[in-house]
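Dear colleague,

As promised, here are the two records you asked about, laid out in our usual form so they can be pasted straight into your sheet.

NAME FIELD: protein one
SEQUENCE, THEN STRUCTURE:
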Amino acid sequence: MEKARENFISWDECFMCMAHVISERSKDPSTQVGAVIADQHNIVIGLGYNGFPRSTDDSAFTWEREGEKMSDKKYAYICHAEENAIYNASKQPKECKIYSTLFPCNECSKALVQNGIKEVIFESDKYHDDDMFVASRRILKAAGVTCRQYISKYAQEN
C-alpha cells in the first residue's frame, strides 16, 4: 500500500499563501495586505484585502499617505484587509482564526474581538512600536485573543 505524501504544506502555510494571493488585489501603491479567516475545521469563510469601499470609484479618493487634513490621506477612506475579510465572511467568524500579512491595527483588532475571532496569525510586524499597534496588542490581550507571528519555512529557504 502506498504511503501518504510527507512534504505537504501546513494549514498555516496554506492560509498565509492565500493571504498573499488575495493581497495582490489591492490597488494601494505602498501597502498591499491580505487576510483569510478560517474556522476550527480549517475551512475558509472569509477573504479580504485593503482597498476603498465596495462600489466606489477609485478616482474619488487619494492614495496619498501624507496630507494636511485627514481627508487628504488614504486612511480616511481605506477598508483594511481584516475588516473586509469579516464583511465578506460566509458565516459569523466566532471562534475562528485570521491570517493576515500584516499585524492588525487597533481598529481592526476591535472588529476582530467584536466578531469573536480567537486567534490572529500574522506575518509582518513592521509597525510594532507605533501607537495604534501598541493599542491593538492591548485590545487583543484583554480579550484573550492568541497572537502569533508566522514565518514561512519556505521564505527562510530562499
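NAME FIELD: protein two
SEQUENCE, THEN STRUCTURE:
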Amino acid sequence: MTVAAKGEQRKTQIVVVGGGAGGLELVRRLGNRFGRDGYDIILVERNRTHIWKPLLHEVAAGSLDANMDEVGYGGHGVRWGYRFFYGTFAGIDREKRLLHTAPLMDDDGREVIGAHAIRYDYLVLAVGGVSNDFGIPGVLEHALFLEDRQQADQFRSKLLNACLRVTHDVAQGRTDSAVRIAIVGAGATGVELAAELYNAAHALSHYGLEVFDATRLKVTILEAGPRILPALPEKLAEAAAAELEALGVEILTDTMVEEVQSAAVKTKSGRVIDAELTLWAAGVKGPDYLSSLDGLEVDRANRLVVRASLQTTQDARIFALGDCCSYTPENEAHPIPPRAQAAHQMANRVFENIVCLSQGRPLKDFVYNDRGSLVALSRFSTVGSLMGNLVGGRMAIEGRLARIAYTSLYRMHLIAIHGWIKGLTLILVGHVNRIVRPKLKLH
C-alpha cells in the first residue's frame, strides 16, 4: 500500500524517518513553515511517543517518570501540521523514490498494519545511533542498553527487582548482600547513570525498602581510555571522578572488556567483576541496515556519509542528520561527534536547505558550533565546559552555574519542539511537578 495525502496525490512530500530530538524538531518546523498547502510532511517512527534521550538515565534509575515528560507524536503532528505514521523503517527504493515500512504486529504476532510504501520528494533520515558492541562476546546477549524508553524501563525493572532481592536477603540475615552493577563506558551516559543510581538508592528507604541504602549499591565503571569523560577538560573529569568515588563508585580506566557474562564482566587483564546488571555505554554506531540502504555511502561506524549541505553523497534528495550521520568538516580529521547539540544544529540546517530547495536558492553548508559539554552527577554535582569553539577555547564551570546551564539544555529542547508558548508553559509545569510528584517511579 502506498501512503499519500488523502485526495491530493501530487503534493510535495517530505518524509522524515526518526522522531528523536533532531527529527521531531525538524518536522515541527517544516509543518509550521509549509503547513498542508501544497506540502505533505510525514514523520515515520516506530514509537508512539518521544522522550529526550539525555533523560533516559533518569528514567532507568527511576528518578524520572517518563509518562509525564514524553510527547505523543499523533497530537503533536495535529498541532504542527505534519502527519505521524506509526511504523518501522524497512528500506528505500531510490529510483522510484519510495520508503518502505515493515508490517506492524501486535504482541500476539497478528498483523495490525501491513507493509507500506511511502512516496517522497525529499527524505530525511534521522534514525539515531545504536550501541557499538565492537564484536565483544556476550554484549548483545547479556548487557543492557539505554537507547530508548523501552530499554530504560527494562533497566529500571531489573534494578528494582535486584533491590528487592537484597532487601529480602538482609532481612534474612545475609548482611553482605548488595546490588552489583557494571557500567561499560565512561562518557556522559555511563557517568550520569552511576550518580543517578546513588541518588535513587538514597530515596528507596522512604518507599518501603527500609533496610536498603546506598551502601547496598556497588557500581563499577569500566573505561578503555585513560580517564572518564574524554569530552571534558581533564581537571573537570578529575573532579567528576572524585565525586563518583566519594559516592562509592569504583572507576577502572585503561580497562578493556573481553567478555560480558550473565552475571559478570571479564576484562582482558583477567579480572572478573561480578555484576547482576551490566549497562553498555561504550560507543555509538549507525544501525546495521544503513550499510545496505540502496547504495548510500556509510563510514566505518556505519553512519551515512553526507556533504556539507547534509545531503547524502549518493543522492541529493536524501538528507541525514544526528547520530546516524557522518560529516567531516573541511580541514578536520574526524567526523562531528554524535551529540544532542549536533543533532539540533543539523536539524536547523536541513530545515533551511529544504526551504532553499523549495525557493530555488543555493543550499547552505553546515557549520558545527561546539558549545561545550555538561555532565550532571544527579543532585550531587554538575561539571562542564561552555562555549567550545565559539571563543576559541573552553570555559570550565562547576556547581550552581553548571547546573543552571545543564537545566537550560532541556528547556531549549522543549521550546524547539513545542514553540515558545507551550514550551514555556511546560517549563513552568515542570517546576510544579518536581514538588508534587514522587521522587521515584517504582512501577
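A couple of things worth noting about protein two: The longest helix spans residues 149-171. The chain has a mean pLDDT of 86.

Best,
R.
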